[in-house]
Structures are given as C-alpha cells and as structure tokens.
Predict the structure.
Amino acid sequence: MFFIKEYNAKKIKEPDNFNNRKRILSSKNKNLIYLLNKRFDWMKKYISKKKIVIELGSGNGCLKKIIHNKNILLTDIIKYPWINKKVDMLSVNLGKKYINKVDVIIINHSLHHCANPYLSLKNASKYLKKNGYILINEPEASFALKFIQILLDDESWSLKVNIFDKRKKIFDPKSPWISNTAVAHLLFNNEKNFLKHFPQYKIIENKLSEFLIFLNSGGVNSEFFHIKLNLFFLRLLDVLDKVLICLFPSIFALNRKIILQKKNK
C-alpha cells in the first residue's frame, strides 16, 4: 500500500455542512477544539489588523468563529447561508475591486477539491497585495492517510497527475466533493520545483503535522469515535506526533501547513 500511486473512492461523500457547522460551533469536545486551535491559531498573527482577509472553499464556515475574527470574508462554490460570496476556487472570481487589494487568502482543506490547483494559485496571486499571504492547511498523502482512505473508502488520491499543467484538470469537476488528497504533496514536497512554476511567491513555511491529535479528535467533517482526553494528555499526544512525524514523515503526517508570500516585485 505504501507504494500505491493512485486510489479512486467508490463513492463521492458529501459532508453535511449544516450539521457539521452546528456540531463544531457548539462542541464541548476538547479533543476537537485542541485540533482546530492547532490548525488555526498560527494564522492569527498574519491576519491581525488586516483589512481584507478572504477564505476560499469555506465549507461549514467555522473558521471565522474559531479564530474570532469577524472581518474574514467567507467564500465557497455553494452559497450556504453563512457564505458571504459565491466563488469558484478554480477561477478565484473575486471581482475587479479585489485585484491587488487582498491582504491574506486562507485555504483550509479545500485546495484538493479544486480540479486545477495550479490555476487556482495562479489566479489567486493577482488579487493579493505585494507581500500578501496565502495560508494553507491541506491533507498530506502519507502512508497513514492512504491507509485510512482505503479503509473508509473516503477520498481519492493520485500521485500520477501533472499538478503543474495549467491546461489540464486533474479530475472532472462535476461535483465540488471530488478530490485528490495528494495535491499538497505534489505541489510542495519539492519546493524548488514549486518556485520554478510560481516565481511570484516565496515559501515562508512548509511543515508537516497531525497524526494522533487528528485520529482522536472525533472528526471535523464527520463524527467518529474518540477517547476523551484532558489538556495534559492532548499536549502529550501532540509531542508524540511531532516525534513520529520528524522521524517518519512519509508514514505519519496527515496535514501539511504552507505559508506563501507574494513577492514585492
């Protein structure tokens, strides 16, 4: 399984964003709260005092509540009641008034649902200010993630696609829930190759994270069994995750965190 290059889930699973939103916002699950804080707390210093912050692919829209910032503009291809603006992540059609005006763009576990992530990042750059940021969390195509996806028949991945082909979609975008969870690995595992194709960006950070703190979180887009832990043991799991991922990143890492900055040129 470690060497499997491609897997196609038999069924496309659409998350229940209405119930997931309600569950997350009212959650008393310390495990889940710890995971979400780990995913989003680092973003606060980049969006503090910024005027225009836009999230692409907001889904259940909980980001604004989790990091307590009312100024974030939530966008998605589906116009849920909490979504501020309908935006296709492929074209990033924000409108002329946002060109070279956006301080920060956030992409949280949604880029792998885009049929051409290359075009998405290219199109996003024209809206960013000089020195503006793109803050990304994405699944990492490790052995553990592949195993979970096969076991649960959850999402698809392919390491065979040419992620830097701007003319070809990596899957048929007939549904917003079709995905390739290898997108982040293909884009960012080789930083030199990424920067060759995206000379307008600098990579500020490219870091792998999350194993046990995700597996025992109780679920973000779906609810599953977990062992309730207090803060001490959650921090202990987090330390163990860091050790495992440091020693065996291709086996254990379930998340990739990327910070891109648009060059001041």
Q: What stands out?
A: The radius of gyration is 18 Å. The CA atoms of residues 195 and 201 lie 7 Å apart.
